[in-house]
Here is the input.
Amino acid sequence: MRPHGDVPEGLTRLAERFELVALTNGDREMVDALLSNTGLRRFFADLLTAEEVGVYKPSPKIYALVERLGVSRSEVGLVSSNPWDVAGAGAAGLTPIYVNRYGLPQEELGVVARIEVRDLRELAERI
Here is the structure.
């Protein structure tokens, strides 16, 4: 897999100001290998995975893993291009950030993204 063209630059700029952590439904070994193979692992301080809590997003239990980082949920922005993930994060008390690469209307899932951008470069410029 190859990341979208904006991802390396966007992550570089975001990592200069924020601690980045991957929160994923994938298992740790798989996600670690994927990020390493794409050259993106270096941007992430940690990986939090569904296997740690035995449930998948959008369960609030997986979003609660961010509390292990020593921050409150409200201090965490979850960045995703999946509307259900954005809604789950917002419902769990995280700041939902939607990467809407294709300009689609937001789905009606009960939670609206606090920030919506087209790519990670735009996100790095806006926050």
In short: The chain is about 30% helix and 20% strand. The first strand starts at residue 20 and ends at 24.
